[in-house]
Amino acid sequence: MPRSRRARTAVFFGGVVPASADEERLAEEVGMALAGAGFALLHGGYNGLTEAAARGAASKGGTVTAVTLADKHPEWGEFNPHLTDEVHLPDIGARLNHYFQAADLVVAMGGGVGTLHELSAALYYAGNIRPVPVWITGPTTLRLLAFLRREKWLFETPTRPLGFLSQVASAAAFAARLPRTLGGTGRAGRAGTSLTGARHPREADQTATAARPAA
After folding, report:
1. How far apart are CA 11 and CA 96, in angstroms?
2. Which of 10, 31, 117, 129 could connect to 53 by a Cys-Cys bridge, CB 3.0–4.6 Å?
3. Taking Cα atoms as reference points, which of 143, 168, 146, 155 lies closest to residue 212?
4. Which residues are 68's β-sheet partners?
5. What is the H or E stretch that residue 107 is in?
6. Backbone angles phi, psi at 4, to 5 degrees
7. What's the rounded Cα separation, in Å, for the pair 162 and 152?
8. Distance between CA 166 and CA 14 in Å, rounded?
9. Model's pTM, two decimal places?
10. Helix (H) or strand (E) holding 15
């Protein structure tokens, strides 16, 4: 189905152990803002920041889907109680592909190595496959982003623009940005501000690439 004919989808990445109560509240407010703007939410389905985002989305009547690994679900435990649907996939590659093929927006917050892997995959996908907007929020992930840029794991050049990547400092800024970036486009982030102040590249430009995260 063409993207313009289906509901917008936001993918949320965040850890199961919030760095602070403030970050957990931020995740909930992000979920509320996304559902309020008409986004369906895809997330891992479990606890911590993902549960907070799901709780926020559900409180606004949003659709909340868990995307998990079929053979890991018994080990990982019960889903959080805010789901409207669930998807069980055979491996990590299928899980990531499901996220990114559906995504109109990726939102990343802090977490462990699993969240780091998801964020790295999102940066690679947006830089090389399709420039889906990636929004970074929360102090933990903003510090990580600063580190990646300082150590040149993530950098921008004329042939590797990062126009898909945005920093969002607060819940208020997140909520305020959504209607502005969605206005008249039907796609999140096309008019978003990047880390360098650049406009988001057009989807037709498939030559744009981002700095590749380490393998």
Report:
1. 10
2. 31
3. 155
4. 88
5. strand 105-108
6. -65, -15
7. 13
8. 16
9. 0.82
10. none
Measured between alpha carbons, how far is residue 214 from residues 66, 75, 128, 167 in Å? 27, 29, 14, 21
**pLDDT, tens only, 86-135:** 999 999 999 999 999 999 999 999 999 999 999 999 999 999 999 999 99
Number of Cβ within a 10 Å radius of residue 90: 10
| Six-digit token string for 112 | 């462990």
Question: Tokens 């420039």 sit at which residue?
Answer: 131
92/118 Cα distance (integer angstroms)? 10
Q: Which residues contact 90 (CB under 8 A, 6 or more apart)?
A: 69, 70, 71
Residues 6+ apart with CB under 8 A from 75: none
